[in-house]
TrEMBL record:
SUPFAM superfamilies: Sigma2 domain of RNA polymerase sigma factors, Sigma3 and sigma4 domains of RNA polymerase sigma factors. The keyword Plastid does not apply. Gene3D superfamilies: 1.10.1740.10, Winged helix-like DNA-binding domain superfamily/Winged helix DNA-binding domain. Residues 85-111, 176-204 are annotated as: Disordered. The keyword Ligase does not apply. It comes from Archangium gephyra. This is RNA polymerase sigma factor. One of its GO terms (biological process) is DNA-templated transcription initiation. Signal peptide: none annotated. The lineage of its organism: Bacteria, Pseudomonadati, Myxococcota, Myxococcia, Myxococcales.
C-alpha cells in the first residue's frame, strides 16, 4: 500500500493514514490556536505527508516517519504565528483531572471540562520541544524510543524534555508563567512527575 501511495494513488494514501487520523488531530490540538484551526492544521500536515511520501525509504516504521513530518509541519505553523495569542477550545482527554470535592453532581461535568481546557492552555504555553515530548508520550502513549525516533534526538534528551516539560506544566497550572523558549530548552532534566500517562508502552 505504501508503494501505491508513493506512486500517487490517493485512495491508497487515504487508507494508509486513516488509522492515524485521530492521533494526528489530537496532536494538532497542542499546536492549534483555535478549535477551527485544529482541522486546518491537521489537514495541512497530512498534505505535507502526502507531498513528502516519496522520501520515505522504509528505514524506520511508517508511523515514526509520519509523526516526524507532522511534527515538523506543526513546528512550522507555530513559528509562523509566533507572538500571536493562543486560545483553547477543545478539552484534553485527561481522566486524572478531578472535580473539587463538594462540587454538586450537576456541576461536575462543567468543572471537569473547565479543568481540561485549563490543562490544554498550559500545554500550549510550553516551549514546542517540551510540548511535543509531553503530548507524544503522555497523551499519545508513544514509548521513549518512539518519541526519540520521531524527534531524531537521543532518548536521554527526551527524558530530560519530559521531566522539564512536566515541571513547567505544573508551574503553569499553579498560576505561574512559562519562560521564553530560549531560556527553557537545553540542560539536564529533573525527576519525572506531573501528567499521568494513559498509554505508555515499552522503553521506560
Amino acid at each position: 500500500m505504501i508503494a501505491e501511495a508513493q506512486d500517487g494513488n490517493v485512495r491508497a494514501f487515504e487508507l494508509l493514514v486513516s488509522s492515524h487520523l485521530p492521533q494526528v488531530r489530537r496532536f494538532a490540538r497542542a499546536f492549534a490556536s483555535s478549535d477551527a484551526d485544529v482541522d486546518d492544521l491537521a489537514q495541512e500536515a497530512l498534505v505535507k505527508v502526502y507531498k513528502s511520501l516519496r522520501s520515505y525509504r522504509f528505514q524506520s516504521a511508517f508511523k515514526t516517519w509520519l509523526y516526524s513530518v507532522v511534527r515538523n509541519a506543526f513546528f512550522d505553523a507555530t513559528r509562523s504565528r509566533a507572538g500571536r495569542e493562543r486560545s483553547l477550545e477543545e478539552p484534553l482527554e485527561a481522566d486524572h483531572v478531578q472535580a473539587p470535592s463538594g462540587a454538586a453532581p450537576a456541576d461536575e461535568g462543567l468543572v471537569q471540562e473547565e479543568e481540561r481546557q485549563r490543562l490544554w492552555r498550559a500545554l500550549r504555553a510550553l516551549p514546542p520541544e517540551f510540548r511535543t515530548a509531553v503530548v507524544l508520550f503522555d497523551v499519545e502513549g508513544h514509548s521513549y524510543e518512539e518519541v526519540a525516533a520521531i524527534e531524531a534526538v537521543p532518548m536521554g534528551t527526551i527524558k530530560s524534555r519530559l521531566s522539564r516539560g512536566r515541571a513547567l506544566l505544573r508551574t503553569l497550572l499553579a498560576g505561574g508563567q512559562a519562560p521564553d523558549a530560549s531560556e527553557s530548552t537545553g540542560g539536564a532534566g529533573t525527576s519525572d512527575g506531573g501528567v499521568s500517562s494513559q498509554g505508555r508502552r515499552s522503553g521506560k
